[in-house]
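Final paragraph of the annual report: two paired records, presented back to back.
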Amino acid sequence: MALSKPAPPRAAGKQKKADVRFKLTKAQKAYVEQLVTLDNRIAVCREYIALWMNFFRFFAEDMTRKEITAAEEKQFFQVMTALTRKHFTFVELMAETFDRGNDIIAVLSTAVSLTHIQNMPENTRGKLELDWHNLFLDMNRTLGRLLRRLPGNMTLSEALASVNAKPVAPDPGAARADGKGAKPAAAAGA
């Protein structure tokens, strides 16, 4: 009677990774190509910086005696929502020029609401403002690095004027919610 040799045990926690590739439609490929252009990366960076500045305007003033209205809380929440929704795109498109995505999340997690910020101890609020400013400077450095990649020998003002200010809008037809827009390459016969 021949005994079969058992398979060698796998190291704990190691699982075989599946190499999943997706075959994009022509529309999806075109959208991705537009998304990663230098002009679009600059537009996304500018848009995120504008949102970041708007976020700070809510708590830049002395809030110790300020009466916070429901409308202000709603506006603050809307800006926070926009920042968190656009965070992934911003961090991914800035790639090698900005590596502080987790720090943005930390600041946003600290600033839960205007009332929460108002009730923070002074040193915690001071740290929040300092972290915001450091991130703001790094975002602007990132924008400068991207602008220097533009062709020609333009000044910063000329470079900013030459770039489309609106980022590429998501194409609802390119990536469908039902998953039918892209097929795994194996299923598509590739």
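The closing record of the year follows.
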Amino acid sequence: MASAPSTSAPGAEAPVTGGGDQPLPTMTRAAVASSERVLIIIANKVYDVTDYAEDHPGGEDVMLEHQGADATTEFQDVGHSRAAQQELARYLVAKLEAGDCA
């Protein structure tokens, strides 16, 4: 099981977390797309799934296919369980800037 993300700048080697009651940082779609980390967008929120990708039940390739992109439709179409949605929440690192929201 992967450890909780640490705090650092978006796109840096370590993922960013909102940390408790602190507001989440914002990222642009361009920043998400250019990150070396495996970042995905679901419902205008950015998730760093780098440490989870190889453990994903559907396979790492599914995660890498959506690296740097919006995977909202695909995530919803699969019909992920409540447990999967709760697991995803652990990897929330940012929200999209208002101008980049779908």
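The CA atoms of residues 8 and 16 lie 5 Å apart. This concludes the annual technical report; the extension proposal builds directly on these records.
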